[in-house]
Write a structure and sequence with these properties.
It is a single chain. Helix content is about 75%, strand content about 0%. The chain has about 475 residues and is mainly alpha-helical. It has a single domain, classed as Growth Hormone, Chain: A (Up-down Bundle), CATH 1.20.1250. The longest helix is centred in the first third of the chain and has 37 residues. The chain is built from 21 helices and no strands. The two termini are about 20 Å apart. It is globular and about 60 Å long. Its main location: membrane. Keywords: Cell membrane, Membrane, Transmembrane, Transmembrane helix, Transport. It is found in: Cell membrane. It is a multi-pass membrane protein.
């Protein structure tokens, strides 16, 4: 099918600049919509869901239960990744992206009209959990397709920059989600926010989904997959093939993401918002605006990191990023615990430096790590497992640590441990910047992955072929 913007790029041909710009725009819009939906839930979990859906459990346990619903969705991300990987490696990236966008939007919109526990009893948290699971399945399939579209369309020397485009959709989604919640807090103060204000951002998802669907339908299939399809080389069972040949790679790549994700979900998972408002007594609106400001800096550093990785390498960028992320963790709670809003905002902004540097290059590095025949499966499943190990339950774990020990310092130790996991994963993998991604280069793509591989088998860093 040809896009309205022009004829499809022939298999094996170099994509046009206009095609690349269209794909970059589409991946930003699509991931922004997906993650706006995902983060609206996490923000509401930290601010209102404990009272509205889990109140009979008591205030403290209701908060933990609310955060657990954030984490349980991560357990279904691998299912979404398995399904998306299978269909993406067999039938293409584009069809998967359209489906995940619709699934996410439908689940989010339905949460906006969901009755509370006071209205329908235990059915309310049960339905909330079901819709969150659907969000998790969608998120598990979304990311892999988006990054492959961006990176496989990119020229080899700018994959980091193009790969950063779907990555910046995440902080933009957080920005929109936090800003929407903050605006609703202004328009619906006090009990009005609990009754109706929180619902409007969920219902607004309908508009965003319509825009995202229109944009994604205008994008052609990835030229790499088009070549695979033209050569009739789709893998019949990509997921079993992936684990039979590349299980260590999947695990190490998951570790790379786990450290970033655990720390990032201190804000995207709603923990800092809840800690600042319920624990420190700060007002909800200013805290949300502080999170919004930090999402802007996260966006900037994510984009810069993608560009930087094209010049100094993905692995080097990550190593610098994890050192800075550890420093950000050490500064986080000492600044937040002052209960001063400017220092809270400063803490979150400092944290985003390391978060951006350990997120911006991920699209390009993941894409270059996996051979073309199992690339969608490998990228999606590694990301999903990393999310389970990292951010899935980090807000709930942090809440439990805080309530059990009464010390935020112990939460910092937990986060530093997760940063170390990410650093170890980074050290175990090679930088494969510039490797030829086409299916004709499958043999080279399968070698030179780990640090113990013979260096003579590592890919050339000077390839200019897409």
């Amino acid at each position: 099918m040809s896009a309205p913007g022009g004829p499809a790029t022939p298999a094996g041909a170099t994509p046009r600049s206009s095609d690349r710009r269209r794909v970059a725009f589409a991946t930003v819009i699509g991931t922004t919509v997906e993650w706006y939906d995902y983060f609206i839930y996490a923000s509401a979990a930290g601010l209102v869901f404990g009272r509205l859906f889990f109140e009979p459990a008591g205030q403290e346990f209701a908060t933990i239960l609310s955060f657990l619903t954030v984490g349980i969705s991560f357990l279904f991300r691998p299912l979404g990744a398995f399904l998306a990987g299978h269909f993406g490696d067999r039938y293409g990236r584009r069809v998967v992206l359209v489906f995940t966008l619709i699934l996410m939007g439908a689940a989010t919109s339905l949460i906006g009209i969901l009755p509370t526990h006071a209205q329908i009893g235990l059915a309310a948290p049960a339905l909330l959990l079901l819709l969150r699971i659907l969000q998790g399945i969608s998120a598990g399939g979304e990311w892999g397709g988006a990054v492959l579209m961006a990176v496989e369309y990119a020229p080899s020397h700018r994959r980091g920059l193009f790969g950063a485009m779907p990555q910046i959709g995440v902080p933009i989604g957080l920005l929109l989600a936090s800003a929407m919640m903050a605006v609703m807090d202004l328009l619906f103060p006090g009990d009005a926010f609990l009754e109706w204000g929180w619902r409007i951002p969920f219902l607004f998802s309908v508009v965003l989904i319509a825009v995202g669907y229109w944009v994604r339908r205008r994008v052609e299939e990835s030229p790499i997959f088009a070549e695979i399809a033209a050569r009739k080389e789709q893998t019949k069972a990509p997921v079993p093939t992936l684990f039979a040949r590349f299980t260590p790679l999947v695990l190490f790549a998951a570790f790379v993401f786990a450290g970033n994700n655990a720390i990032g979900y201190m804000t995207t998972g709603g923990y800092v918002q809840n800690y600042a408002t319920e624990g420190l007594g700060l007002e909800r609106g200013p805290v949300l605006w502080a999170v919004t400001a930090s999402s802007v800096s996260w966006l900037v550093f994510t984009f810069v990191a993608g560009w930087l990785s094209d010049h100094i390498g993905r692995r080097t960028t990550y190593l610098i990023g994890y050192v800075l992320l550890g420093a950000g963790v050490l500064a986080l709670f000492p600044l937040v615990n002052t209960a001063e809003l400017p220092l809270l905002a400063l803490a979150l902004v400092l944290l985003t430096v390391g978060l951006g540097l350990t997120y911006g290059p991920q699209s390009a590095w993941y894409t270059e790590l996996f051979p073309s025949s199992v690339r969608f499966s490998g990228v999606s499943i590694s990301y999903a497992i990393g999310a389970v190990l990292g951010g899935a339950f980090s807000p709930a774990i942090a809440s439990w640590i805080q309530q059990s020990t009464g010390s935020s310092t112990n939460v910092s130790y937990y986060l530093l441990g997760m940063a170390l996991v990410g650093l170890v994963g980074t050290l175990l993998l090679r930088d494969r910047r510039g490797i030829n991604l086409r299916p004709t280069n499958e043999e080279q793509q399968s070698r030179g992955i780990y640090i113990w591989d013979d260096s003579s088998s590592a890919p050339s860093q000077t390839s200019t072929t897409t």
